[in-house]
């Protein structure tokens, strides 16, 4: 049957590998840097958390439901093409989100290219009172200082000099230096605002009586005032609350539309390929396709980050840096659209029992091991979402470039691939639930390490632990689900863990993480997550020791029972080679 063109397995696997690789590149073009782009628009941490939380909710529940609808109406090919084509049209909408500081952003690239040498030296002397300020890059300062003025008062260049001279005493807690340092700062501002409409210094920065709260950069002064975080942010930077509200509304609407279109793609492709291969008993190549996706993500995240520094100034006329993310995403989506035309999709309707989701939920409710595993997956999803949302903000605070951020993601992905040959040894020697606990320990260690990060490069060494905290963790979860589920509900149950439980945890972590950052700093948030994971690990191990050990279905015992019903010879049954082989397999799994 495999000789028939419809069942060309080798060709189907080649197309599937290419499709997963391209989709990995496509996802890595924008997703790791999405929250960084939202912060550059002026959105605070709680607003970014709400946007990302709703995004994860849509992915968790709409993707499986959309895939089920596509299968019921036999429209999988149409859904694949429509999802990719819709992504091309909806992703660039994020560039249209309104933001503050349009006057400065139009000329930032020219300033950085022409004035970099003359601005670095004054910055080092002007911000001697705070090491965080001293380490900020020139582009961050250019985005922060004149671009956030809401009064838009047009004055001459001399007004900036007067504003600096008059406010030097009031702002001594932020700008510590001599009179020469103030002159250097004046020269920096004059050089960066050439050809731009000038604004009054007092109108742009009202720091004398209001706290400067910069949640997007993780900077907070020592003299805090008990004000709501949003009022501190909008008041200190003089951003209109109306402008911030509209930017949030547009970002939320565009993100929801984009995710509704793009979410069903992976689930539809996954189900189609599995059914295509399962019909001819060729699922041996299905389990290794995730490697190609990780390779694509590693290539995509590094190449896109490298293009940002080279092409961003040429592609954007006005707006924050990062438009290259969305242009790259759209271009790779077009390439994936071409590959999806040849993607293997079965033309038959495979029979499956109804109410599989209800049966999977019933199986989880009746198994204490699966309940414990489900709560663990939710907590891991919450912790991972906090890292994905805000780690790049923390690296940006220390002056990290997008290329370093992309390299840190690639290290974690390549670590999973390199650990894969040791998968069987790890699961056999440590056990499945033991590997789950080991993943929790590594994830807690990563979060604790992030809390005490001291520079942009110090993040890189700990990324290798993601091979265990993410890769080995999910291998153990999948093996446990396969052993505790029936053949009918195996894939449905695994989809429930990956989509519903993990996606729900990511949504919960995004919501709570943003509001915790509104009250505390990011290192404190990482420390809180570490404590929660370690407390849950102790609870997880203590409960696991009291639960009866779960075993997979023993088909050898079923054969023995069936044989005893038809024959009274037990000695002959013990010599059955099939029973012995299955008993040996069960003993090896148990050991």
Structure, explained:
The chain has 27 helices and no strands. It is mainly alpha-helical and 591 residues long. The chain has four domains: 1-100 and 240-348, Growth Hormone, Chain: A, CATH 1.20.1250; 103-231, no CATH class; 356-552, MFS general substrate transporter like domains (Growth Hormone, Chain: A), CATH 1.20.1250.20; 555-590, no CATH class. Helix 1 runs antiparallel to helix 16, helix 4 runs antiparallel to helix 13 and helix 21 (432-451) runs antiparallel to helix 24. It is globular and about 55 Å long.
CATH fold descriptor of the largest domain: Growth Hormone, Chain: A
Radius of gyration (CA) equals 28 Å
How many strands appear in the DSSP assignment? 0
How many structural domains are formed by the residues?
Answer: 4
Strand % is under 5%
Derived structural class = mainly alpha
Q: What is the residue-averaged pLDDT?
A: 74
Order of helix and strand elements from N to C terminus: HHHHHHHHHHHHHHHHHHHHHHHHHHH
Low-pLDDT runs of 5+ residues are 1-5, 101-108, 111-238, 554-563, 565-575, 586-591
Give the helix level as a range of percent.
over 70%
The protein's oligomeric status is single chain
Distance between the termini: 39 Å
CATH class label of the largest domain:
Mainly Alpha
Q: In the CATH hierarchy, what is the architecture of the largest domain at level 2?
A: Up-down Bundle
